[in-house]
Amino acid sequence: MRNNAASLPGDLPVLWVADKQDKVASKVLKRLAYDKMVGNPKNRFVIVDGGHKVTPDNAVSTVIDWLKGL
Questions:
Q1: Is the N end or the C end of the chain the one with fewer CB atoms within 10 Å?
Q2: Which residues contact 7 (CB under 8 A, 6 or more apart)?
Q3: Could you write out the DSSP letters of every residue in the chain?
Q4: Total of domains in the chain
Q5: d(Cα 34, Cα 5) in Å, to the nearest integer?
Q6: For 41-60, what is each residue's pLDDT tens digit?
Q7: How far is CA 17 from the centre of its chain?
Q8: CA–CA separation, 61 vs 70, rounded Å?
């Protein structure tokens, strides 16, 4: 994942959503993968409340707001 994230084109905006309870996604993968991406000003890393099963539902408004900003 680290190598794939680093190879994404810089003009590709990325929204990365993790849940608070998932320490691997919210901390480790942020450091190892998200932080390695080429900096696009529209990239966002967002942590939402909830566990793995409810993260998509809890992130709906975040995703919509991010898409509107593209």
A1: C
A2: none
A3: -HHHHHTS-TTS--EEEEETT-HIIIIIHHHHTGGGS---TT-EEEEESS-TTTHHHHTHHHHHHHHHT-
A4: 1
A5: 7
A6: 999 999 999 888 899 999 99
A7: 4
A8: 15
Alpha-carbon gap, residue 43 to 33, rounded angstroms: 13
Task: Name the CA dihedral angle for 9, 59, 51, 23, rounded to a multiple of 10 degrees.
Answer: 40
Residue 26 has pLDDT above 90, yes or no: no
| Structural domain boundaries, residue 41 | 2-68
Distances (CA, A) of 57 to 14, 26, 52, 62: 19, 17, 10, 10
Give dist(CA 41, CA 49) in Å, integer. 24
Query: What pTM does this model have?
Result: 0.86
